[in-house]
Amino acid sequence: MTDEQDVRKAGWVNEAWQAAADKAARIGERIGTGFPHASVNGEYALEDPHWWTAGFWPGMLWQLYEGTGEERFRTLAEGCEERLDQVLHQYERLDHDLGFMWTLTSVASHRLTGSENSRRRALQAANYLAGRFNLSGRFIRAWNPWSEGEDNSGIAIIDCCMNMPLLYWASRESGDPRYRQIAVAHMETVLEHFVRPDGSVYHIVQFDSATGERIRGLGGQGFAAESAWSRGTAWAIYGLALSYHHTGQPRFRDAAKRVAHYFLSQLPEDSVPHWDFRLPEGVAKHRDSSAASCAACGLLLIADLVGEREAGSYRRAAERILESLYRNYGDWDNPKQEGLILHGTDHFPEGRNIDVPLIYGDYFFVEGLARLRGTEAIFWQ
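The structure assignment produced for this chain is given below.
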C-alpha cells in the first residue's frame, strides 16, 4: 500500500470512528443502561437484561471508552454490567449466550479497569457456561425449553462459537484447564458437524442428548436446513479464528479460512451480504449488515494470524466491507434513527426485525474500526 493510500484509509477510518463515537454519545442519553436490540421506527427497543444481545451496547461503550477515554462511556458500561447481576442470580434465565453477555461486560471491564468484581462475575458466568456441556455429544447446549414440555437438550448452534472466548479467558485467569478443554471439544464438534466442505455452515444441529449422535441439521434463522445463513457464516469465521488464536491448533485456522473464502465468494458488489447465500427465486434478498461487520472483524483477526503473504488479502477484504458499511449503510446525522448501521436482518423466517439497524451490527462495526485503528483491547482475545 502506498503512503497516499495509507493516508486515505486513515482518513475514512478516523471519520467513521468519530461519527460512531458522537452518535453513541447522543443515543446514550436516552438508552442509558438499557439493553437495545433492534431499531423500531428509528428508536432502539430495549430488551430485558436476560436477552442474548445484552452485552453488545456495553461492549460498544467499553470499546469507545478505550479509544476515547471519555468517562461517560465507562459510566454507562459499568451500569449495564451491574444490571446484569440479576440475571446471574436467576439461573433459569441463563443459556449459552453467557459468552456474548459477560465477555463484553465483565471481561471487558476487568481488562480495562482491573475490577475484581468484574473478574468474579465473568468467572461465575464461565462456570454456568461450562455446565451446559454435553459430554456424550461434545457440544454446549444452546437453549433452555422455550415452552413447557419442550425438549431442546440436544440443540447446538453455530452462534456459540463466539461464546467460547469466555471459557478460554476463564482457563487463563483461573489456571484451570477444564474451561479450555470444554471449549476445544465444542469447537471440534463444530468442525465435524457444522462446517460443510465448501465452507458454508449449518445454523442448528440437533443431537441425541443421551447418546450424542447427530440427528440432523436445521434451518434456524437461515432459509432452510441446507441453505447458508450469512450471519451464521460470520459467526463461524470469527469464532474459528478466535479458537485458533487461543489454542494455536491449525485445524481451527484452516477452517476459518475455508469459511471466510466461502463468505467472500458470495458477496455482492458492495461487499455487504444478503441474509442467506442460497435463496431461491422469489424470496426477498434483504441485506444483513450485521453479518458484514462481524465477518470483517473475523477477517481482520485472520490477517493477524496468518503469514504476511496471505494477510493482505484478508485485511483488504475487511477494509472493503467496513468502508462500504460506513459510506453506504451508515446513518450518522439523522436524529430520527438511533442505529449506526442500517439494513440488518435479524430473523427473516419469523418475520422479525427485517431491514433495520441491529445493536450487534453496530457493535462489530465499532470493533472493526478499533482494530483498524490498532487497538489492543479486543475483549474476545
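Interim note for the steering committee: Residues 3-31 form the longest helix (29 residues). The chain has one domain: 3-372.
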